[in-house]
Amino acid sequence: DFGLMTYDPAFLNTSSCRSAITYIDGDAGILRYRGYPIEELAEKCSFLEVSWLLLNGELPNPNELSEWTGLIKRHTMLHETTKKFLEGYRYDAHPMGMLISTIAALSTVYPEAKNVFDADNRKLQIARLIAKMPTICAYCYRHHFGLPYVYPDNDLNFTENFMNMMWKMFEPKYLANPILSRALDILFILHADHEQNCSTNTMRCVGSAQGDPYVGCSAAAAALYGPLHGGANEEVLKMLDQIGSKDRVAGFIHQVKEGGGKLMGFGHRVYKNYDPRARIIKWAAEQVFTVTGYNKKIEIALELERIALEDDYFVKRKLYPNVDFYSGIIYEAMGFRPDLFTVLFAIPRVVGWLAQWQEMLLDPEQKIARPRQIYTGHGERHVVPMADRH
Ligand code: SDX
Questions:
Q1: Which pLDDT belongs to residue 2?
Q2: How far apart are the CA of 269 and the centre of ligand 1, in A?
Q3: Which residues carry out catalysis (predicted)?
């Protein structure tokens, strides 16, 4: 029980922290949000239920869920000036670059967000960010094609509304398909939080200076963009395209073992066992393929996993598929372009960033992040006049 763990308060102003939100046992492959196993939450809950759990510590009762859903729905629209901001981008701007800057721009639309210790104001800003992430993503996608934006439709649930804003009048084949919208809801649950990962740690660090949550989430999204973190799901698809067919997997793995790069979607800083999220995503892929048709890339991915899990190089390094290994295959099958995959990671992860930020903000012993260093530079020395420098 970590509650009994003793620690030096100075520990809290480094890049490490204490938290009661998410528990991971990397050796056993266990992931729990507020004590609930991720497998149960993915099977029995909706993403908005889980977002309430992460933010408030308990699953919502019917009234709480109804009020929370209503609050989210009230804030799915983007201020019209934000749409003009998006229109300033080139048509081929990467959606993550657009997302990162648009989230930061929202801090200028809601200047009251800097009152971070006002609980009602904080709840409103948190709801705004969760509600607007899908809208920003859909607008970035339609901006790329020069299509008119589709306004949020609050008669639809969270993922149906997102898919409607993405594809209405453009890619109608997957609109409001209950199997696909539920699969996306499950993917959002799996990506919602993950303890002190790179982007969440960034949110805590920036948030410890007591700025508003928009600039904190913008910084966290910037961290997520990296190919070693949230950008990996887009890199997995590039890797599978590069391999090209099932019979070329063994040759590709040989190249990796010879030092030719990394298996994208494999390995993890914490999991030294199968990422429990990858197992659930594999199941979700089968559901999605019943609607979209079988995706050949899954055959390459399954063959890559089969060979790697039997290969001593990966076994002794405890490298297993992580959350990114199968998610991109599902997203592509559902019609999402690869350059949107990391945005699809950010949409749910904003909940984890905000839950961890709020927990840090309300921790009376948390100070501004100030990691220490091991100095490896010169001892004291003195300036030599320019004329004497060679
Ligand atoms: C996410 O932190 C989180 O929680 C992140 C995340 C979340 O939900 O927020 O789970 C999401 O970011 C998942 C990770 C997505 N990234 C990738 O899939 C990119 C490919 N994987 C890696 O680059 C790598 O595995 C990391 C970055 C994830 C972890 O890197 P580490 O900590 O250096 O891995 P390690 O210490 O376990 O490595 C041990 C050995 C090293 O080789 P040796 O020096 O011992 O010879 O394994 C090698 C590594 O070079 N290795 C890999 C590898 N990952 C590590 N070799 C080939 N392919 C890989 N994918």
A1: 41
A2: 6
A3: 268, 324
Least Cα distance to 247 among 300, 325, 207, 199 occurs for 300
In whole angstroms, give the CA distance from residue 260 to residue 356. 37
**Cβ(277)–Cβ(31) below 8 Å:** yes
**Residue of higher predicted confidence among 217 and 170:** 217
- Residue carrying structure tokens 């295959």: 329
CA gap 165, 346 in Å, rounded: 17
- Reference 131, options 351, 358, 327; nearest CA is 351
The torsion angles phi and psi of 273, rounded to 5 degrees, stand at -150, 180
Mean of pLDDT over the chain: 92
Q: What is the ipTM of this complex?
A: 0.94
Closest Cα to atom 41 of ligand 1: 317
Residue in 193, 229, 235, 312 to alter for ligand 1 test, most ligand atoms within 8 A of Cβ: 229
What pLDDT is attached to residue 169?
A: 83
CA 275–ligand 1 middle distance (angstroms): 12
Is the model's pLDDT at 12 over the cut of 80?
no
Residue 75 is a catalytic residue: no
Which residue, 347, 338, 73, is CA-closest to 190?
A: 347
